[in-house]
Amino acid sequence: LHILHERYMNRMKYENRHPVHMSARQDRFEDFKDYVECARKEGTVGTVIKICADDFSYRTDEELLQKIDCGTTTISGVVLDVEKKQVVETRTIPNGSFLPKRKDWERMQDVSVIFKKARVLVDELLDCCPDCASIGLTGQMHGIVYLNAEGRSVSPLYTWQDGRGNICDDKTGKSLLKEIEEKCQYKAASGYGLITHLYNEKHHLVPIEANTFCTIMDYLGMCLTKRTHPLVHVSNAASFGFFDVQKKCFETDWLNKIRMDTIRLPEICEDMEVLGMYKDIPVTVAIGDNQASF
To answer: Which of 127, 139, 208, 234 is deepest in the core (most CB within 10 A)?
Structure first.
């Protein structure tokens, strides 16, 4: 009852109720406690609590949801009141993690910088709204981060802007995209995660410790929940390329035809699954920023 009362009063403060109004509600709550005690003796306490909670307009803060967007230029966060369809709090900070380019076509970002900034944002929003029911993630699609067997990053983030798929080979005079189109009749774009990986594999640029890969938003979810392997939503998996959106699986036959190595493709899911907990709050699987916009 003490917890019920405390959360009830916090809810009143959240709705900016006048202190006098709150005092009046406090008096009614005392009556409520007496009523519950009588019901306890009669064995109907569960029903009474539910009815009285509704009568007092009691609601937990479970309709508050936190969402984080790991964008290319900024990292943003928002707390939403789903029931009221209102924005409670927002934050936006510069991403600022681009690495110096060794080649004109490179577009890579520092994974550790992105994670540290995103975690600060998550914590700031939790300080403001500690009773969020869940933390949702989204961010820039297509790009990949290589992970080792323990689930830690062993590479920079190769972003969706990376142009290595368009580079012509000195021997063949053809770009990787052109080779793939001729072999598989498949059209892709430079910056797609599997195009980046195939180029890196061909030019011996894949880190020796690399076991699998994921998007930067997937990696944020892994770090927050201490997961050791990625779980990638189909909206993000499709952005890597070589993905059958009807069957919702990677097109491994085409990848085998191109002779991709045995790096493990990430596990995928279709539903909004829970990755784990961060400060006792569920963190859900990341979805693509295009899908999140709807």
So the answer is: 139
Place of tokens 């899911």: 269
Q: Where are the alpha helices (DSSP H) in 138-267?
A: 176-184, 193-202, 216-225, 234-237, 252-257
Whole-angstrom Cα distance, residue 243 to residue 241?
5
The string of pLDDT tens digits covering residues 153-178 is: 999 999 999 999 999 988 889 999 99
What span, in angstroms and rounded, lies between the C-alpha atoms of 188 and 176? 10
CA-based torsion, 180, 181, 184, 187: positive or negative: positive
DSSP letter for 155, please.
S
pLDDT of 25 > 50? The answer is no
Residue type at position 212:
T
Rounded CA gap, 180 and 188, in Å? 8
Tokens 């700031």 belong to 124
Q: Looking at the DSSP assignment, which residues form a beta bridge with residue 232?
A: 268
Phi, psi of 103, deg, nearest 5: -125, 150
